[in-house]
Amino acid sequence: MSRMTDDRIKIVRALREASKIALFSHGSPDGDGIGSMLAAGAALTKMHKEVSLYNSDGVPPNLAFLPDAHRVQRMDGSIPPADTFLLLDCAELARVNLQASDWPSETVVINIDHHISNNSFGDLNWVDAQAAATGELVYQLIRDLGLQLDEVMATNLYTAVVTDTGGFLYSNTTPQSHYLAAELMELIDVADINTQLFAQQPLAYIKLLQKALSSLEIMANHQLAVMTLRWQDFLDCGAEESLSEGIVNYARDIAGVEVGILVRETQNGEVKIGFRAKSWLNVNEVAAQLRGGGHKRAAGCALDVTLPEARAMAVSLLREALDVGRVY
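The chain above was modelled as a monomer; its predicted structure follows.
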């Protein structure tokens, strides 16, 4: 177990002293965001805290099987009454549609995350960019609080780690990821969870993937693969926005390609770009130039421009980054 920092000690103390705790995960949620929040929520509930869980977009269909998923509420614009806010897997407040002026000054804001782009917005911050998933930090938090893991916590923590490591395929996977998974496997049905996560795709997802693949373009000496999805594509396929999660990986996984991107329109007219690198390109730095961020090999941004404009901006920056060449 890693050494406890001063902020980590203070976070444990603050959670022990809190009575009402509101937990948040980022919009357009993934397995790490939802899994980390549900695991932490279960742990704090076991401590007899009054716990509420929020996500601006709710739980996506592919994660609805997770235990306690029904506890997650959509934010309605009002700030929940709580003496402590715990934000998980959120690089910045904007990811949960909050800003510092939204809550009383005495509210304690705790920020636990693993994104390299995290700006330490909390009163207390535990940010470890070396962790493969925020779920790894929540596991340590549960141990720090002196709690025993149960099936609910373990299922959600395993989901957090296995999804953010791409089934332990991505370069962010560490020995700790495997040690943690081995411990969690004592409490859960791994085969069932993996089936739910990776082998239960709705037909709408397959149709949306077909649309994305039909838009595929390879460029920059075969190093860059680009896919686009219009909002009309989602409507034609009967697909929710959350179903685009993971489609970008099909672009990155092409032999010889270093980085794949998916440029997609949202229902509100915004354009979101997902960046996925294979082995060496730091896409967090590219996304940062578009006011986004994330990790070295996985990042994203949102732009208030047209889809062709967003695509052109991203392609231009990526061509430049790829031209610079691999930096060890």
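The chain has a mean pLDDT of 94.
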